C-alpha cells in the first residue's frame, strides 16, 4: 500500500475528505456570519442555534409531516430564514441604534433560549436522521473509499457558497448589499429601502445556517447543542479569514477543515486545538485576518 | 416633442400653478444632531429650473441644510416641500423618489464596487434620466475606467462619478455639496460646463459652494448662511454691486 509520510494513502485521503466536509460547514457558516456582520455590524451569536434549528426542522418535518430530505433542503432554509427575518424586524431592529455589543448579547441570549427550550423537550442525547437512500453507501474511487453522503455535502455546500458569492459579487441586489455595508446612509439617500435590505440580509444569513443544518442532520446526531460547539470553531475561522471578504470566508473555511483533517492524521492530540493555534498566529501577525481589510 | 418633454409638460398641467413654478420650499427648518441644535429656522425657496447657491463659512449649516432635506440628520422640525409634497414626515428612502439627486461632500464613492456598478447603483426615480451613453459622452474618463474599483479614481474622476450616477436616475432636483473642493482648476472648469448643460436641460440645482468664483457666473440667486440661518438673499443681477459686502461676509 502506498504510504505518504508514513501514513497509508487511504487513511490520509479519508481524513482529508472528513476535513473538507467539516471545512464546507465552516465555510457555509462563516459566510453567513460575514454577510450579516457586513451590513448589520452584529456578531450573530445565534448562528449556531439557527444551524441547529435547521437540523431540527428537517428532523421534525420528516417525523411529523413526512417532509423528505430533498424538500427539507429547500423548505427549511426558507422557513428558518423567515423566522430570522422576524427576529431582525422585531428584536434586532429595536436595538440597532445602540452599541453593536448589545446585538451580540441579544443574539447570544436568543441562542440560549432556543437551545434551552429544545433541551427541555428533546433532551441532549440527539436523534438520528437518515440520509435519503440515493445518498447512502459509498463509492470505491480506487485510492480511497468515499461515503456518498459526504461527497454530496461537499458538492452541495460548495454550490451554495458559489451561489452566495455570485449573488453578492455579480448581481444588482448584491451591489446594494456591498454598498450598504460601506455606507448605508447614502444608500437611503439614493432611495434604497435599507431597513428592508437589512431584514433580507439577516434572513439570508440565517437561511444559510439552516441549509448547513439540514446538510449536517444525517452526519451528526441532531441535538439542541450541536450548534454551540461548532460555532466556537466557526468564530475562530472568521477571525482567521477576516470579516472583509466573501471569497475569503469560503477559502478559509475549507482550508481550516483540511488543516484539521491533516492534524488528525499526523498529530491527533492537537486536532481539536490546531484551528485556535492558527487563530492566535494570525492575530499576532495579521490582526485584520488573512483576507480582511486593514482598518 | 419627444416623450420626456411630453411627460414633463403633462406633469406641469396636472399641478396647480404655484406648485409647478416652485421646486423646493424650506420654511422654519430646525435640525439637530443629538443635543446640538444646528439649523435655527432656515427659510428659502427654489424655482423650477433655477440654480441657487448656499454660501457661508464652514459650520454655517449649509451641508446640514442639504442633509436635512434628505432626512439624514437626527431630528428636524419646520417644513420642507418638494414639488408640492411635504416631506418632513417621509422616510429617508422615499425622499429621493420625489426626483432628488444628492451628491455628498465626501462624494460617497463605494470602494467595493467598480465604476460601472457605482454608476448603476442608485435606483432610477424617474423614467427620463440620462442614458448611459449620454453619461459616458459627458464624462469620457469614466468610460475608460469603468472596470476600476470606484476609489481607485482620481479625486476629479470620483467627483464626476458622484455627479454622473445621480444624473442617470432621472432626478430633476440636484443637491450638490462642495463639488469643486480640492480639485484642479481644469476639473473645476469641466464641472462648470456640466452644470451649464444640466441647467439647459431644465434641472433645478442647489449648490453648496466654497469657491465663489466658480458659483457666481452659474447661479440665479445666492443665499448666504450664518449660524444656521439664511441671512441674505442676493440675485445674480444684484451681485456686482453687492460683491464687496458679500466678500466681507464670507471672509474671503
TrEMBL record, chain A:
Keyword tags: Amino-acid transport, Cell membrane, Membrane, Transmembrane, Transmembrane helix, Transport
Top-level taxon of origin: Bacteria
Pfam families linked to this entry: BPD_transp_2
Transmembrane segments: 20-40, 47-65, 71-92, 104-129, 149-168, 189-217, 229-254, 266-285
Molecular function via GO: transmembrane transporter activity
Subcellular location: Cell inner membrane
Record-level GO BP terms: amino acid transport
Keyword set includes rRNA-binding: no
Major location category of this protein: membrane
Membrane protein topology class: Multi-pass membrane protein
UniProt KW Transport keyword: yes
Entry GO CC: plasma membrane
Family (UniProt): Belongs to the binding-protein-dependent transport system permease family. LivHM subfamily.
Protein name per its UniProtKB record: Amino acid/amide ABC transporter membrane protein 1, HAAT family (TC 3.A.1.4.-)
Organism: Vreelandella arcis
TrEMBL record, chain B:
Entry keyword set: Amino-acid transport, ATP-binding, Nucleotide-binding, Transport
Iron recorded as keyword: no
UniProt key word Lyase: no
InterPro entries documented for this protein: AAA+_ATPase (IPR003593), ABC_transporter-like_ATP-bd (IPR003439), ABC_transporter-like_CS (IPR017871), BCAA_Transport_ATP-bd_LivF (IPR052156), P-loop_NTPase (IPR027417)
Residue ranges annotated for the ABC transporter domain, each copy included: 24-252
Single Gene Ontology MF annotation: ATP hydrolysis activity
GO biological process, one term: L-amino acid transport
Family (UniProt): Belongs to the ABC transporter superfamily.
Protein name per its UniProtKB record: Amino acid/amide ABC transporter ATP-binding protein 2, HAAT family (TC 3.A.1.4.-)
Organism: Vreelandella arcis
Organism lineage string: Bacteria, Pseudomonadati, Pseudomonadota, Gammaproteobacteria, Oceanospirillales
Amino acid at each position: 500500500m502506498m504510504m505518504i509520510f508514513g501514513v497509508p494513502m487511504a487513511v490520509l485521503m479519508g481524513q482529508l475528505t472528513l476535513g473538507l466536509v467539516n471545512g464546507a460547514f465552516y465555510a457555509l457558516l462563516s459566510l453567513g456570519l460575514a454577510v450579516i456582520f457586513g451590513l448589520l455590524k452584529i456578531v450573530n451569536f445565534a448562528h449556531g442555534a439557527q444551524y441547529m434549528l435547521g437540523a431540527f426542522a428537517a428532523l421534525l418535518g420528516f417525523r411529523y409531516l413526512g417532509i423528505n430530505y430533498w424538500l427539507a433542503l429547500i423548505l427549511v432554509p426558507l422557513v428558518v430564514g423567515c423566522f430570522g427575518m422576524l427576529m431582525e424586524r422585531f428584536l434586532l431592529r429595536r436595538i440597532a441604534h445602540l452599541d453593536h455589543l448589545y446585538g451580540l448579547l441579544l443574539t447570544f441570549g436568543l441562542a440560549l433560549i432556543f437551545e434551552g427550550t429544545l433541551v427541555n423537550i428533546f433532551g441532549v442525547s440527539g436523534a438520528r436522521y437518515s440520509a435519503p437512500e440515493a445518498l447512502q453507501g459509498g463509492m470505491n474511487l480506487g485510492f480511497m473509499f468515499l461515503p456518498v453522503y459526504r461527497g454530496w455535502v461537499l458538492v452541495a455546500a460548495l454550490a451554495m457558497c458559489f451561489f452566495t458569492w455570485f449573488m453578492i459579487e455579480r448581481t444588482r441586489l448584491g451591489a446594494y448589499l456591498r454598498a450598504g455595508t460601506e455606507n448605508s446612509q447614502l444608500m437611503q439617500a439614493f432611495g434604497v429601502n435599507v431597513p428592508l435590505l437589512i431584514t433580507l440580509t439577516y434572513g439570508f444569513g440565517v437561511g444559510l445556517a439552516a441549509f448547513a443544518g439540514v446538510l449536517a442532520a444525517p452526519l451528526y446526531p441532531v441535538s439542541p447543542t450541536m450548534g454551540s460547539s461548532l460555532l466556537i470553531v466557526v468564530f475562530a475561522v472568521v477571525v482567521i479569514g477576516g470579516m472583509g471578504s466573501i471569497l475569503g470566508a469560503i477559502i478559509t473555511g475549507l482550508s481550516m477543515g483540511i488543516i484539521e483533517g491533516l492534524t488528525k492524521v499526523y498529530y491527533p492530540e492537537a486536532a481539536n486545538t490546531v484551528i485556535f493555534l492558527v487563530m492566535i498566529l494570525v492575530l499576532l501577525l495579521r490582526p485584520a485576518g488573512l483576507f480582511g481589510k486593514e482598518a | 416633442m419627444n416623450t420626456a418633454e411630453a411627460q414633463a409638460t403633462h406633469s406641469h398641467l396636472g399641478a396647480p400653478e404655484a406648485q409647478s413654478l416652485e421646486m423646493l420650499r424650506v420654511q422654519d427648518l430646525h435640525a439637530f444632531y443629538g443635543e446640538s441644535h444646528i439649523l435655527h429656522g432656515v427659510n428659502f425657496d427654489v424655482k423650477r429650473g433655477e440654480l441657487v447657491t448656499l454660501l457661508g463659512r464652514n459650520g454655517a449649516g449649509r451641508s446640514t441644510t442639504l442633509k436635512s432635506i434628505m432626512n439624514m440628520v437626527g431630528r428636524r422640525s419646520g417644513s420642507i416641500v418638494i414639488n408640492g409634497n411635504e416631506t418632513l414626515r417621509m422616510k429617508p428612502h422615499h425622499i429621493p423618489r420625489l426626483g432628488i439627486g444628492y451628491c455628498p461632500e465626501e462624494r460617497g464613492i463605494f470602494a467595493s464596487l467598480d465604476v460601472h456598478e457605482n454608476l448603476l447603483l442608485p435606483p432610477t426615480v424617474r423614467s427620463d434620466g440620462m442614458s448611459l451613453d449620454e453619461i459616458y459622452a459627458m464624462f469620457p474618463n469614466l468610460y475608460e475606467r469603468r472596470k476600476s474599483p470606484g476609489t481607485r479614481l482620481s479625486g476629479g474622476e470620483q467627483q464626476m462619478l458622484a455627479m454622473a450616477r445621480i444624473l442617470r436616475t432621472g432626478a430633476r432636483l440636484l443637491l450638490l455639496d462642495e463639488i469643486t473642493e480640492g480639485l484642479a482648476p481644469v476639473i473645476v472648469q469641466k464641472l462648470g460646463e456640466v452644470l451649464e448643460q444640466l441647467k439647459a436641460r431644465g434641472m433645478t440645482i442647489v449648490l453648496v459652494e466654497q469657491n465663489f468664483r466658480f458659483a457666481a457666473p452659474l447661479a440665479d440667486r445666492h443665499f448666504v448662511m450664518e449660524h444656521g440661518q439664511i441671512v441674505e438673499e442676493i440675485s445674480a443681477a444684484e451681485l456686482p454691486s453687492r460683491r464687496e459686502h458679500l466678500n466681507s461676509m464670507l471672509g474671503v
